[in-house]
Design brief:
about 270 residues; mainly beta; four-stranded antiparallel sheet; about 0% helix
């Protein structure tokens, strides 16, 4: 986002006043303090939302006059929550229904309303080829898009491109999306739940299977937060320690090893 393709080994400022940044597979989107959204990086499939499919070395504003309260960049898709009415808009790759408008169009270069998502939302997350949204009342999770690994959390592996998937949980405070899995945090029970692709153990159920199609609880009265990476997850425990699980090939679990972990392991500070 600094106008060059030079690798940087120290933090480099991206011009603008930002309140959130979301990093996708090959692109980045940011929410500015004035509610506008700007994206940069690879533009394939229209994931930058500016009406083009070309790459951009600097932030470009999406083709929309709306303002937003949240944004998420995923594999080839980006989505945002409008500030005016809490509706979700998406742009970029949509060949498995990521747009949420009952279509399977590959390239969507400008934002479209996710008409399947009939709720009012506070947060949206985009995974490899799916989208999840958290309602601003009741803490419900609505999902759409690819579901080959059960990442929509509704007990099957059917893609949802013309039907909204509702996960069987409530009172959720936070959602996170990895490449093919999701995690959620519920403060009322201090609980972390994960579901979806589990090839690397990123669900944390101690098994490491192909697909976990419904939410799996990693325990109650012990968690304070959760995050999902590409193929791993991490959680903050109520005692202040952090545990991670899933793909550890690049030491991303912080436990001193470079192997996958199917259950949470505490990081070694």
């Amino acid at each position: 986002g600094d106008g060059t393709t030079t690798d940087r080994y120290i933090p480099t400022q991206v011009a603008g006043a930002w309140i959130k940044i979301s990093v996708g597979l090959q692109h980045v989107c940011g929410l500015k303090t004035n509610g506008t959204i700007w994206c940069w990086g690879v533009g394939t499939n229209g994931r930058l939302g500016n009406g083009a499919t070309s790459n951009s070395l600097v932030p470009v504003q999406i083709s929309s006059a709306n303002t937003y309260i949240d944004v998420s960049a995923g594999g080839g898709t980006s989505c945002a929550v409008r500030s005016s009415d809490g509706k979700v808009e998406c742009w970029g790759r949509g060949n498995t229904g990521e747009m949420g408008n009952s279509t399977v169009t590959l390239d969507n270069t400008t934002p479209v309303v996710a008409s399947l998502a009939t709720g009012t939302y506070a947060k949206v997350v985009v995974g490899g080829n799916f989208v999840g949204a958290l309602t601003n009342s009741g803490g419900a999770i609505h999902c759409w898009g690819g579901n080959a690994n059960g990442q929509l959390g509704v007990g099957n592996t059917t893609d949802y491109w013309n039907t909204l998937a509702t996960v069987s949980v409530s009172s959720i405070d936070k959602i996170e999306a990895g490449n093919s899995h999701m995690c959620a945090y519920k403060s009322a029970t201090m609980e972390v739940l994960c579901w979806g692709g589990d090839t690397y153990g990123q669900i944390g159920n101690g098994v490491g299977t192909t697909a976990v199609t419904s939410p799996f609880s990693l325990g109650t009265s012990q968690w304070a937060d959760v995050w999902a990476g590409y193929n791993h997850s991490c959680g903050l425990r109520t005692n202040g320690t952090t545990s991670c699980w899933g793909n550890g090939a690049n030491n991303q679990l912080g436990d001193g090893g470079a192997i996958n972990q199917q259950s949470p392991v505490q990081i070694n500070p």
